[in-house]
Automatic annotation (TrEMBL):
PANTHER family linked to this entry: G-PROTEIN COUPLED RECEPTORS FAMILY 1 PROFILE DOMAIN-CONTAINING PROTEIN (PTHR24372:SF77), GLYCOPROTEIN HORMONE RECEPTOR (PTHR24372)
Name of a matching Pfam family: 7tm_1
Metal-binding as UniProt keyword: no
UniProt protein name: Partial
Main subcellular location of this protein, as a coarse class: membrane
Protein family: Belongs to the G-protein coupled receptor 1 family.
GO cellular component, one term: plasma membrane
Record PROSITE patterns: G_PROTEIN_RECEP_F1_1 (PS00237), G_PROTEIN_RECEP_F1_2 (PS50262)
Originating organism: Paramuricea clavata
Gene Ontology terms, MF aspect: G protein-coupled peptide receptor activity
Length: 367
C-alpha cells in the first residue's frame, strides 16, 4: 500500500486518482475539495443568490441615482460611489462562480494554476477594492448626514469639490491597498514552500487570513479588515446614534405629530443601518482579534468559510436597499413614474378612440 504525506490537498487527489487504494495525508482545504472549488452546496447556492441581489440591486440603485433629479448633489454622488463599489462585489462573486462551474468535477487539476494565476489576483483585488471603498463611502455618507442633522448651524457642510476630492483619494487609496500585495516582490506576501501568493491562500481568492504561524501577511489583513474597518464601523454606529438622539430631541420638543412621524421613519432607517454594520463588519474584526490572542479555535475552518463567502459580500447586497430602495424619495419617484405611465396610456387610448367617436357623431347628424 502506497502512503504519502504532503502539504497540499491536491497532491492527495492526484495520488488517489492515479493509485486507487493508496493512502495520502494532507491538511484539509478551507473551502475546496478534489471535485469542487466550493465544496459546500449551501454556500454555492448562497453565492448565486448574492450575485443576483448585489448586481441587480446596485445597478438599479445606480441608475435611479443617475437619472433622478436630486438637490443634494453631495449625498447623491456618495451613494453612486457606494452603489458602484458594491456592484464590484457582485462582479467578483460572478467570476468565482464561473470558475467553480468551469472546474466542476475535477477542480484538483486546476487548483494550482488558478491560485497562482493572474485571474485569481484580479478577482481578489476587486473584492478588496469593493469592500474598502464601501466602508469609506459609508463613513462619508454618515458624516455628511451628521453635519446636516446634529451640527446644522455649527459646521460648514461638505461641498461638491470636497466630496469629489474625498472619493478620488478613496478610490486611489483603496486600489493601492489591494494592488500592493499582488505586485510587490516580497516574501512577506508570498509563501515559497506552498508557492502561494496573498490572494492564492484559498480557492475564492478572498484575502481574509487569520493570524497564525504560517499565515501569509496576516498583519496586513488585520490592519485592513480588522483595525481600519472596525474603526469605520464604530464611527458609523456612534454617528447614527447621535443623529437618532438629536432627531428625537428635536421632534419631542416641537410636540408636532407630523414631525414625530418623520422621526419614527428616520429612526427605523438609522436602526437598520447600525444593525447591518454591527452584523457585517464588527464580527469580522472580532474574528481577527480573537484569533490574534488565540481566544478562538477554528480548527474546522467553518467560521472562515462563512465570513469569507457570506458576511463580507452580504453588506454589498443590503446597501442599495438601505440607501436607495427604502428611501421615501425613491418611492415618491416610483409613484410619479407610475402616474406618468398611466397618463400616457390613457392619453393614447383617447387618441385611438377619438376618430371612431367623431365618425359616430357624424353618422348621427346625418340621420
Amino acid at each position: 500500500m502506497l502512503f504519502r504525506k504532503t502539504d497540499r490537498f491536491t497532491d492527495c487527489c492526484f495520488v488517489e486518482n492515479l493509485k486507487p487504494g493508496a493512502t495520502c495525508e494532507a491538511p484539509a482545504d478551507k473551502i475546496a475539495n478534489c471535485e469542487r472549488m466550493i465544496k459546500f452546496a449551501e454556500l454555492r447556492y448562497l453565492m448565486w443568490f448574492l450575485v443576483v441581489l448585489t448586481v441587480g440591486g446596485n445597478v438599479f440603485a445606480l441608475l435611479m441615482r443617475l437619472v433622478k433629479d436630486d438637490t443634494n448633489r453631495v449625498q447623491n454622488m456618495f451613494i453612486c460611489s457606494l452603489s458602484f463599489s458594491d456592484m464590484l462585489m457582485g462582479v467578483y462573486l460572478a467570476g468565482i462562480i464561473n470558475q467553480e462551474i468551469t472546474t466542476r468535477g475535477e477542480y484538483y487539476k486546476h487548483d494550482f494554476y488558478w491560485r497562482t494565476g493572474s485571474l485569481c489576483k484580479v478577482f481578489g483585488i476587486i473584492s478588496v477594492i469593493s469592500s474598502e471603498v464601501s466602508v469609506f463611502t459609508l463613513v462619508f455618507i454618515a458624516y455628511d448626514r451628521f453635519l446636516h442633522i446634529v451640527r446644522a448651524l455649527e459646521f460648514k457642510k461638505i461641498g461638491y469639490r470636497t466630496a469629489v476630492f474625498l472619493l478620488v483619494v478613496t478610490w486611489f487609496g483603496c486600489t493601492a491597498i489591494a494592488v500592493i500585495p499582488a505586485t510587490v516582490d516580497s516574501t512577506y506576501f508570498y509563501d515559497e514552500t506552498l508557492r502561494q501568493g496573498f490572494y492564492g491562500t484559498n480557492a475564492i481568492c478572498m484575502p481574509l487570513q487569520l493570524p497564525g504561524e504560517n499565515t501569509i501577511a496576516w498583519e496586513y489583513c488585520l490592519a485592513v479588515f480588522g483595525a481600519m474597518n472596525f474603526i469605520g464601523a464604530m464611527y458609523l454606529i456612534v454617528a447614527y446614534c447621535q443623529m437618532f438622539y438629536s432627531s428625537y430631541t428635536s421632534a419631542k420638543n416641537s410636540k408636532n405629530s407630523a414631525r414625530l412621524g418623520v422621526h419614527t421613519t428616520m429612526a427605523k432607517r438609522f436602526a437598520a443601518v447600525v444593525f447591518t454594520d454591527v452584523c457585517c463588519w464588527v464580527p469580522i474584526a472580532m474574528l481577527l482579534l480573537l484569533s490574534l490572542v488565540r481566544a478562538i479555535n477554528d480548527s474546522g475552518n467553518e467560521l472562515y468559510m462563512w465570513f469569507s463567502i457570506c458576511v463580507i459580500p452580504i453588506n454589498s447586497a443590503i446597501n442599495p436597499i438601505l440607501y436607495t430602495l427604502s428611501t421615501p424619495l425613491f418611492w415618491q419617484k416610483v409613484k410619479e413614474t407610475i402616474k406618468k405611465l398611466l397618463f400616457c396610456i390613457s392619453k393614447d387610448n383617447v387618441a385611438t378612440d377619438k376618430p371612431e367617436l367623431i365618425g359616430k357623431m357624424n353618422r348621427e347628424k346625418k340621420t
